[in-house]
Amino acid sequence: MCKRCEWLDTTKADYIAYHDTEWGVPLFDDHLLFEFLTLESAQAGLSWYTILKKRDNYRKAFANFDPNQVAQFDESKKLELMNDSGIIRNRLKVNAAINNAQQFLAIQKEFGSFANYQWQFVNNKPIINDINSKDDYQATTKESEAFAKDLKKRGFKFLGPTTVYAHMQACGMVNDHHNHCFRKQEVIALYPSLFS
Question: Quick check: is 49 catalytic?
């Protein structure tokens, strides 16, 4: 039987699938990065699994996470979102998602891609952390603080250092799989040049 990260609830098949195929894999696709950013900001104050269960609803509600479309959402669309029971109906979070899409596009224009911008905070190389127990996990790091501070300066909302660190973990900027988790080395093997 495969050993997995201790935080994972192995009674939930969808959570296992997320852990085994997505979490911690280095992402450079702007479309997926916008999806993760939007979901992480929606998650603030809630469990990640709550958001994971609503992911398909978010895809439908937020134009399949197309930042160009989300950036254009108007007041009537906001009202529609606030009446959508499939997502977290928090006005501040809905407004933040639309605002963040606009800032996301500005960064793409400036840096050529959001990935170029995001990965500079780890010098374009994933950080591999030594995780032997739940106590080894950090809530924030100097990198997530720098990233969050810069996002805030650029006008992003609901993306503080803790939320940004969760985003960094999800997008593989840090490999925070437990040392005994089969995915730790598997992810490294997927990108040998990136981890060398």
Answer: no
Q: Which of 20, 18, 14, 13 is nearest to 35 (CA)?
A: 18
CATH architecture of 13-195: Orthogonal Bundle (1.10)
Out of 22, 48, 49, 186, pick the active-site residue.
48
Mark the binding-site residues, compressed into ranges: 5, 19, 177, 181
List, for residues 123-178, the tens digit of each pLDDT value.
999 999 999 998 999 999 999 999 999 999 999 999 999 999 999 999 999 999 99
Torsion angle, alpha carbons of 63, 65, 66, 70, to 10 = 70
Binding residues for Zn(2+): 5, 19, 177, 181
Contact 118, 147 (CB under 8 A): yes
